[in-house]
């Protein structure tokens, strides 16, 4: 990582978020630098859905070059369910798989529209990626697999459900 231009940060530290945003803006302003690779989900899930994107990547401006990535589990599953398998079990499963097959689709570049905020832009990019990969779009954060669901989120979903009924 020292030979490349990684931007490392602690997500929970607000000062780090502002510093990262500044570093990314400086990076994209310099046309001599290579594009930045960002995984805006912040986590990997089970290959069926695309979770909520972190909006920070979509606030800095510039052109987004979306890439849809989907693993084909027929010969070996690259997904690690950390609640079910230890790291050693996962590594053993991957290393003894027949093959890890991954489909990658490079999608047309996208830019933020004039009246669009970062959240809507992120959701638009996410929808394009999900559609190309044949995955569903989920409105919640992938971190929910490791954290307790907020009461406000539960209440919001309950209200939506009540409206349907």
From TrEMBL:
<dbReference type="GO" id="GO:0019432">
    <property type="term" value="P:triglyceride biosynthetic process"/>
</dbReference>
<dbReference type="GO" id="GO:0005789">
    <property type="term" value="C:endoplasmic reticulum membrane"/>
</dbReference>
<keyword id="KW-1133">Transmembrane helix</keyword>
<comment type="similarity">
    <text>Belongs to the 1-acyl-sn-glycerol-3-phosphate acyltransferase family.</text>
</comment>
<keyword id="KW-0444">Lipid biosynthesis</keyword>
<keyword id="KW-0594">Phospholipid biosynthesis</keyword>
<dbReference type="InterPro" id="IPR045252">
    <property type="entry name" value="LPCAT1-like"/>
</dbReference>
<dbReference type="Pfam" id="PF01553">
    <property type="entry name" value="Acyltransferase"/>
</dbReference>
<dbReference type="GO" id="GO:0004366">
    <property type="term" value="F:glycerol-3-phosphate O-acyltransferase activity"/>
</dbReference>
<dbReference type="InterPro" id="IPR002123">
    <property type="entry name" value="Plipid/glycerol_acylTrfase"/>
</dbReference>
<keyword id="KW-0256">Endoplasmic reticulum</keyword>
<keyword id="KW-1208">Phospholipid metabolism</keyword>
<keyword id="KW-0812">Transmembrane</keyword>
<keyword id="KW-0472">Membrane</keyword>
<comment type="pathway">
    <text>Phospholipid metabolism; CDP-diacylglycerol biosynthesis; CDP-diacylglycerol from sn-glycerol 3-phosphate: step 1/3.</text>
</comment>
<keyword id="KW-0808">Transferase</keyword>
<comment type="pathway">
    <text>Glycerolipid metabolism; triacylglycerol biosynthesis.</text>
</comment>
<keyword id="KW-0443">Lipid metabolism</keyword>
<keyword id="KW-0012">Acyltransferase</keyword>
<protein>
    <submittedName>
        <fullName>GPAT3 acyltransferase</fullName>
    </submittedName>
</protein>
<dbReference type="GO" id="GO:0008654">
    <property type="term" value="P:phospholipid biosynthetic process"/>
</dbReference>
<feature type="domain" description="Phospholipid/glycerol acyltransferase">
    <location>
        <begin position="1"/>
        <end position="70"/>
    </location>
</feature>
């Amino acid at each position: 990582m020292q030979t490349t231009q990684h931007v490392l940060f602690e997500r929970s530290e607000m000062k780090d978020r502002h510093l990262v945003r500044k570093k990314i803006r400086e990076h994209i302003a310099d046309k001599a630098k290579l594009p930045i690779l960002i995984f805006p989900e912040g986590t990997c899930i089970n290959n069926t859905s695309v979770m909520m994107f972190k909006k920070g990547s979509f606030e800095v401006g510039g052109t987004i070059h979306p890439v849809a990535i989907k693993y084909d589990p027929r010969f070996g599953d690259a997904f690690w369910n950390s609640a079910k398998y230890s790291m050693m079990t996962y590594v053993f499963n991957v290393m003894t798989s027949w093959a890890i097959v991954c489909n990658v689709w490079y999608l047309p570049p996208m830019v933020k529209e004039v009246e669009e905020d970062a959240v809507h832009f992120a959701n638009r990019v996410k929808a394009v990626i999900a559609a190309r990969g044949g995955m569903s779009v989920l409105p919640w954060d992938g971190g929910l697999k490791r954290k307790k669901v907020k009461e406000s989120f539960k209440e919001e979903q309950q209200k939506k459900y009540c409206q349907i009924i």
